[in-house]
Design goal:
The protein is elongated and about 80 Å long. The chain contains 10 helices and 13 strands. It folds into 2 domains: 3-214, P-loop containing nucleotide triphosphate hydrolases (Rossmann fold), CATH 3.40.50; 218-289, 2-Layer Sandwich (Alpha-Beta Plaits), CATH 3.30.70.980. A hairpin with a 2-residue loop joins strand 11 (241-247) and strand 12. The protein is of the alpha/beta class. Strands 5-6-7-3-8-9 form a 6-stranded mixed β-sheet, sandwiched between helices. It has a 4-stranded antiparallel β-sheet with strand order 11-12-10-13. A 3-stranded antiparallel β-sheet has the order 2-1-4, with helices on one face. Helix 4 (108-115) packs across helix 5 and helix 5 (131-143) runs parallel beside helix 6 (161-176). The structure holds adenosine-5'-triphosphate and magnesium ion. Magnesium ion binds at residues 43-44, 153. The site of magnesium ion (MG) has 3 residues, from helix 1.
């Protein structure tokens, strides 16, 4: 599958604050890719850098395998901050101004108005729009130059539940029409409902990337206690786990493959170790993310 965006070791530091810290990721064509993280984790800074409005401290990125230039940027539609429209002009009049700036034919306007479902309000003034309609108009404006990729930063912020559902539906429709979408959100629920792939940022660092479908799947972990000095080493040598971590008086094995607690017990027995405690636990990615997202410390300043 064609790679749309490659981010390589991208960092943005503001003095001591590492807004984005050594971030690498890839977005493939057709992905609805979520960047998930709590407030201050670096989502907007990341989008700002790949849109060339924020200068990276380190690292770089490629769009469609190329260094960004003006032609490449035309393939990218973005809604970063709340877009500015003229309050006393209608939806159509505002879009004409955007067409002029982007050098796009006015013929596109009816299409995008239809796509975002604003037909009935296309000739009313922007001031009379609800927040949801304003967001639709912003999306319409980003669609004008028929971009290959759409970047959306917290597209449902401030909307009521119905508005949220409608915008999410619209995003999925846009994706189904063949566009790649990169969406920043602090809501796990939003990423789960809209995205196919996602990356989790915490204090500027990438801490997870994968398929949204895997979120409900969990890591299997086994807690082990035994009165021997080299338990960690023995457990690490078992080849049954990807990681062994000490937690107070016990060791936690993150299991790989289908190894069970019986297998661990058998293995310890063969090594002349008697376990005083052996417990299988699962902790879903979802639980882990909710803990991360509840991390109110936010950035790192
Ligand atoms: N211009 C700036 N000067 C100094 N620090 C900044 C600047 N812009 C962002 N930061 C800091 O960088 C970190 C990341 O901010 P960013 O806006 O990228 O986070 P975010 O994930 O988009 O957060 P939110 O969910 O609140 O939108 C924060 O600690 C923020 O305070
Ligand atoms: Mg942000």
């Amino acid at each position: 599958m064609e790679t749309v965006l490659t981010i390589r070791n991208l960092s943005k530091h503001y003095g001591r604050i590492k807004a984005v810290d050594d971030l690498s990721l890839e977005v493939k064509r057709g992905n609805i890719f979520g960047i998930l993280g709590p407030n201050g984790s670096g989502k907007t800074t990341t989008l700002g850098m790949i849109l060339d409005v924020i200068n990276p401290t380190n690292g770089d990125y490629l769009w469609f395998g190329e260094k960004p230039d003006k032609n490449v940027r035309k393939k990218i539609g973005a809604i970063l901050e709340h877009p500015i429209f003229y309050p006393y002009l209608t939806a159509v009049q505002n879009l004409k101004i955007v067409c002029d700036i982007k050098e796009v034919s006015y013929d596109r306007i009816p299409e995008v108005i239809d796509q975002v479902g604003l037909d009935e309000r296309k000739d009313t003034k922007y001031t009379t729009f609800s927040l949801g309609m304003k967001q639709r108009l912003a999306i319409a404006s980003a669609l004008l130059c028929d971009p290959i990729v759409m970047l959306l930063d917290e597209p449902t912020n401030g909307l009521d539940p119905q508005g949220i559902a409608e915008i999410r539906e619209l995003i999925v429709e846009i994706a189904n029409s063949g566009k790649t979408i990169l969406l920043a959100s602090h809501l796990l629920d939003e990423v789960q409902k809209v995205c196919t792939h996602f990356a989790v940022l915490r204090r500027g660092k990438l801490i997870h990337t994968g398929l949204v479908d895997d979120v409900s799947k969990g890591d299997r972990m086994i807690e082990v206690k035994a009165k021997v000095d080299n338990l960690q080493e023995v457990l690490e040598k078992s080849g049954m786990s990807s990681k062994v971590k000490r937690e107070l008086d016990k060791y936690i094995m993150t299991m790989q493959g289908d190894y069970s607690s019986e297998d661990v017990n058998q293995y310890l027995f063969e090594n002349n170790i008697t376990a005083s405690h052996l417990l299988l636990k699962t902790r879903s990615l979802e639980q882990q993310f909710l803990e991360i997202l509840a991390d109110k410390e936010g950035g790192n300043g």
